[in-house]
Amino acid sequence: MNNIKWKNEFDVAKKAAVEAGHVLNDLSGRLTQIMKKGVIDLVTNADLAAEKIILEIISQNFPNDNILSEEKGELKQNSNRTWIIDPLDGTTNFAHQFPFFAVSIALEVENEIIIGIVYNPCRNEFFQAVKGQGAYHNQKPVHVSQTTVLNESLLATGFPYDIHENPDQVFDLFKRIMIRAQGIRRPGSAALDLCYVAAGILDGFWEAKLKPWDTAAGMLIVEEAGGKISTFQGTAYIPYEDTIIATNSRIHA
Ligand code: IPD
Ligand code: CA
Ligand code: CA
User: Fold this and answer.
1) pLDDT tens digits, 37-82
2) pTM, whole model, 2 decimals?
3) Is 9 exposed, middle or buried, given 0-12, 13-18 or 19+ CB atoms closer than 10 A?
4) I need a surface site. Which of 2, 67, 156, 169 has the fewest CB within 10 A?
């Protein structure tokens, strides 16, 4: 990154993501603890170990910032800056050694996402964006696809952890889109799904009931790659909304 603005924050976030990625790679295939937060919602020792290293690095460098991290929760201080962290997005994939999971770190300043980093350590895919400075995959600029119609679009989605209790709405929407798209995938890491929209691999993505740590980084990466983000209703998206659509912008409507 050449631009000096946010360089310090970016470098620290990058270091945290890469070190957490090493932790995940080391633990891959030899999980000792798989706990359940819900019927199908897992947390493993890898989520906790990756989170520990990220929180150590961020709080050593920026002790006054707020933190919102999936497993540890919220650290609220008197600051307008919040680090939004998912130490392992795609825990179910990780637990089954399905190689699609990532570390996601974002910095929000005055309600705006300024830095987004998503790192998939098993494929060494590093996605990054700084507000106004473009989106990159392994240092190369990325752009959303040019596809203009749904029947030529490859889309992705995900299913919420309460799907067993409330399947109908999710499947109704899935069916409506399935019969119009070229194909749909359910890769299992919302943060990476968003990055694949940014990179033009996917043309769009939608999901309900995601949390800020799933989308904060990926959202900026999509926007900086020329894509569009909204809620299901088409209103402006912030990572605290309940629904998200991310597209190349051409198929958004
Ligand atoms: C999950 C993944 C998944 C999505 C779930 C998320 P986690 O995050 O992003 O793709 O469908 O809704 O909760 O629990 O693996 O961090
Ligand atoms: Ca997640
Ligand atoms: Ca997680």
Assistant:
1) 777 666 789 999 999 999 999 999 999 999 999 999 999 999 999 9
2) 0.96
3) buried
4) 2
Give the atom of ligand 1 at the shortest distance from the alpha carbon of 187: 10
List the chain domain ranges.
Answer: 4-142, 150-247
Q: Report residue 76: phi and psi, to 5°.
A: -100, 125
Q: Say which range, 13-17, 135-139, 165-169, has the weakest mean pLDDT.
A: 165-169
Select from 3.20.10.10, 3.30.540.10, 3.40.190.10, 3.20.20.390 the CATH code of 4-142. Answer: 3.30.540.10
104 closest CA partner among 253, 215, 246? 215
Q: Does domain 150-247 have CATH number 3.40.190.80?
A: yes
Task: Kindly state the tokens that stand for 132.
Answer: 């106004």
Any ligand 1 atom below 6 A from CB of 188: yes
Residue 89 C-alpha to ligand 1 middle, in angstroms? 6
Contacts of 68 (CB under 8 A, 6+ apart): 74, 75, 82, 83, 84, 85, 212, 213
Indicate which atom in ligand 1 lies nearest the CA of residue 214. Answer: 9
CB 232 within 8 A of CB 245: yes
154-194 pLDDT, tens per residue? 999 999 888 788 888 899 999 999 999 999 999 999 999 99
